[in-house]
Amino acid sequence: MSHHDPDMDLLNSLSPELSQRLKELMDQALLGFIRPNSTSQFAQHAPELARFCDTIAHSDSKDDIQFLRSFREFVPTTDYEPYRPYIAKFFATHCNESDVKNLLAPGLPYFIGISSMTSGKSVKTFPIYMLAPHMFHHPLYPSMPHSEGNALSPSSLGLWQVLKMYCEDGQSSRMLSVCSATAGYQRMKMNWDVGHDMDRLGLWLPGQTVPHAISLVKSYRTFFILSALFALADRRVTIIRFLFASVFVNFLQYIEDEWTLLIDCIEKGVIPAMDNMDHVREPLEKHFTPNPLRAAELREIGPPVVQGWAVRVWPDLTKFVGVTGSPAQAASIPKVTHILGPSIAMQASCYGSTECHIAIPYFNGNPNTDFKVIPVDGVTEYLDVHSNEPSERVLSAWELVTGGHYEPVLTTRNGLWRYRIGDVVTVKGFAPDDGLPVINYLHRRDGSLGLEYGSACTESELANAIVSASKRWIGQIIDFTIVDDDRDKPITYGYLVEIGGEIGKDAKMAPQQTFDDLLKNSSFALDFLQGRARSPTVRLVERGTFREYRRQKCDKANISIAQVKIPIVLSDATFKEWLLQRVIMEL
């Protein structure tokens, strides 16, 4: 075989020696989390952990083997509910430090992380404790001043709220910020406390294209236009980093819409007037000088339309980092690859969530979709999604089977115990050096639009069907979501799609191809044959709809700009109504 097959080096199964080494690694990591966290308020009082605590209280506490056996035997899987009343203590009207000390893990948290609210359900918050300083540079926790040259990495340090914890003396208090995990870890690494945010407005970190003040702008549109202004003015960008590929597409839309304004501002050295930016105008003006040469160069290149546009604007660009491999990002990939051009390497950021950083990109495979699960922020165990056992048995890394579909279960540094995150991943193989599993993210476990006939097309199937139909018939898809289309019986999948550029002349063929793709799911096909399902519908919405959805969601919920995802299946009735008003044509 002449070409190198990057998947060749993954092992299909573990040798007994490698299995043993993996078990030792996992056991040590697990002990490192559960020993200290077993003394927390949660572990001592939550009914879910009563049998575990009881067992370890009646055995030799120094016996690691017994400790691990008790964990595996007596700790059940958990969801958010058992933690909710404990975490609520931080939000009490008068929060005493003594009430929340050692709550889920030893000491007090550095910040409270908010989970991204894709599903429209109520927000979940998680205390995040201080990292050991040597972990700050671990690739699992992307750090702020990147060592990789000049980064275009717009990130929001906006706070959802600031809580007060009263110290034992009853007089003094300390602040606790509630924010996205990205913002919280960034603050932790830089030791940026909330109280001095305004003193840092003039800061411009080396290696960052965007000055620090922009990260404190709350308005979605203002944040992106100011980021775009500084990014376009800086020719030396070497790496582009966005949490999600779809947010980079939003960023490009703003550049396209405001192209003339942005170039004029670069030429004259002017910061444009926009909403919610009075506090940052002065520090930004200090950083921004007229640059007629750069403006002329950009006018020559034109807005982000042509293939490889990014390399013409930033000739030193080598890499794009962001989530591209999940179904929710599938719609953005054609636009991103078109703008970056073939010479730019793309890779995912890490795989994980507010609750836990789970895995890092696996560079011997496809760094957009392959992740190596490492036990650094937590230990991952697994539930077999296709198992027929009545009670789901929790599997360890060395018990996994290549090709199997699993839901990750997390026991974390921050005090979660066998916590179910509701994702489904598949095991691609095992890394040959240490036996750690390499996985691909598939979809959310509950991510099907049950509709009234209970058909279960997964998020991946729903996303792939519209992305391939758009590619072939409609045009360049920017974003989409699915609502239940109840205009006829039975209810069906109602795709709402935004495209960039021209609508294909045979776009009317798209619903049929989408339907054909969904029929590959045997339960959907059966429902159709039995009259409980009908062909999906496809409606196009006006340009900028999903960007406006993100802006509204961000401004309304006061959450981090980087965290707003478009759900594949939208259940929020208010937003459904709002989106339907923006439909411009039905295919």
Q: How would you describe this structure to a colleague?
A:
By secondary structure, the protein is α/β, with parallel strands linked by helices. 32% of the residues lie in helices and 20% in strands. The protein is built from 19 helices and 22 strands. The strands form four sheets. Strands 10, 11, 12, 13, 14, 15, 16, 17 and 18 form a nine-stranded antiparallel beta sheet that branches. Strands 1-5-6-2-3 form a five-stranded mixed beta sheet. A four-stranded parallel beta sheet has the order 4-7-8-9. Strand 8 (319-323), helix 14 (333-340) and strand 9 form a beta-alpha-beta unit. Helix 3 (50-57) runs antiparallel to helix 4 (64-74). The radius of gyration is 25 Å and the shape is globular.
Uncertain runs: 1-7, 450-454
> Mean pLDDT, nearest integer?
85
Structural class: alpha/beta
Helix amount? 25-40%
Describe the secondary-structure layout.
Layout (H helix, E strand, L loop, with lengths): L15 H22 L3 H5 L4 H8 L6 H11 L9 H4 L7 E2 H4 L10 E4 L10 E4 L21 E3 L8 E6 L6 E8 H10 L29 H14 L3 E8 H13 L1 H10 L9 H10 L4 H10 L7 H5 L5 E5 L9 H8 L4 E3 L3 E2 L4 E5 L9 E3 L4 E7 L9 E2 L9 E8 L6 E2 L2 E8 L6 E8 L14 H16 L1 E10 L6 E9 L9 H9 L3 H8 L7 E5 L3 H13 L15 H8 L2 E4 L1
Helix pairs in contact: 3-4, 8-9, 8-10, 10-12, 15-16
List its salient traits.
alpha/beta; 5-stranded mixed sheet; 22 strands; 19 helices; disordered N terminus; 587 residues; 9-stranded antiparallel sheet
Summarize this entry quickly:
With 587 residues, the protein is an alpha/beta fold. The strands form four sheets. Strands 10, 11, 12, 13, 14, 15, 16, 17 and 18 form a nine-stranded antiparallel sheet that branches. It has a five-stranded mixed sheet with strand order 1-5-6-2-3. The protein has a four-stranded parallel sheet with strand order 4-7-8-9.
